[in-house]
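Recap for those who missed Tuesday's class. We walked through two folding examples back to back. For each one, the amino acid string is listed first and its predicted structure tokens come directly after. Nothing is annotated here on purpose, so try labeling regions yourself before you check the end of the notes.
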Amino acid sequence: MLNFNAFLVGLLFGLGLIISGMTDPAKVIGFLDLAGDWNPSLAFVMAGAILIGAIAFNIAKKRQRTLLGTPMQLSSVTKLDKGLVIGSLVFGIGWGMSGFCPGPAVVSAAAGQPKAWIFVVAMLAGMALYAVLERRGRSD
């Protein structure tokens, strides 16, 4: 049942990404192009997501269990570190170059967009490289 609920939530998230235009790399790049033909529409999508996320996290912090009955697992990290800053820069550069971020890329790949598949493969390779480097760093 938990997997089915996760599937439904993922489906809802994917539909939201499609409806909002987040799966259209041209629209995303237009939003990021502040010096050119700027498209501010995704700012409203982001503002809505931030508002909903802030409310949801505020509620979640007060709970011990999720709505599905599993233990609530929220991060307790509040400090910015070098890894977070570097990761954010790499994420932003990849987003700006491709017009995809991970969620919309997976949705677009599932819809058969070849550029999204290239992004997803590169993303998975980057995740694997990070895991190798992280393990190597811990063993030193």
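Example two. Treat it independently of the first, because the proteins are unrelated.
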Amino acid sequence: MVIPSDNPLTEAGVALGRQLFYDPILSLDSTISCGSCHRPELAFTDGQAISRGIAGQAGRRSAPSLLNIGFHYKGVFWDGRSPNLEDQALHPLGDSLEMGANWARVARRLNNHPDYPGLYAKAFGQADLSKEQTARALAQFQRTLISANSKYDQVQRGEARFTPQEQRGWTIFFDAGYPTVPMAECSHCHTEPLFTNLEFANNGLDSSQHLQNFRDQGLGAVTGSTYDNGKFRVPTLRNITQTAPYMHDGRFAKLDEVIDHYNTGGQYAENVDPNVRPLHLNEQDKADLLAFLATLTDTFALNNPAYYPLQK
């Protein structure tokens, strides 16, 4: 994990970030917090196809998981528009469709709060309740959100064994048994140990004869490159059973639908990833693949008390 030299993790900084993460004081009307769209029991997603902000307004995309987000050094958000977590934290705070905060108003609330001036001073050496220090604290907390104790991890450490079905699913996922066992091409983009390569790709969700025609341009809107239109961050598959619905717009309600999408080979666009192709998986192959994906669920992380709001 790359940790900025000007924002090292400290106990006080993480504690402040944890409290801020779950405090609706940061939103315009004090009704939602970061934790409203990133719930720890759902691997820090919210179970919605499109997240909702203040006054129930629909946002633009689905809330991605934050577990292991500290390792994402190639840009965060679905479109990669933030280079790091310090920058990322400021976007939802000011977005009118999310938390819609007016920082002058939020700063007054924080300064008038009985606890926050002391917590900021303890974390950063001075009671500077600025949005920059707020972002640093939130980033510190998010870097502690680690998932590394799933059954898959236990198998890698020699502490558990896959069932025969999970083992066959592993073989399909990693293209490790061809030609006896079919290939699913998953591991090219969902690479170990994070089960994402941290890159951005067009995975064939929408047909487009012209790259300018994507309704949501994704990465292309950030880079200005037409060839990046329709590309989105490759999400982690860790805890994937807990993060439905799927894709950046939540279009698939179940994992079966995701696998069926890839099995058909997706839809045409000039920049579709070359690994998206018809897979010819039968029903047993798909069931075995699902069984392996379930081994990526980390119940320890999903229930870690340190990831939940402080109990008062």
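Answers for example two:
The mean pLDDT is 96.
Residues 263 and 281 are 6 Å apart (CA to CA).
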